Amino acid sequence: MPKTDTKQDQAKLSELKEFIAKCKEKPNPQSYLIAVLHKAQELYEYLPRDIMDMVAEQMNVPTAHIWGVATFYHYFNLTPPGKYTIQVCLGTACYVKGAGQIMEAIQDELSIETGGVTDDGLFSLQGARCLGACGLAPIIMVNDKIHGDLTPEKVRKVLKDYRKAEKSKAS
Ligand code: FES
Question: How many Å lie between the centroid of ligand 1 and the Cα of residue 61?
Answer without folding.
Answer: 38
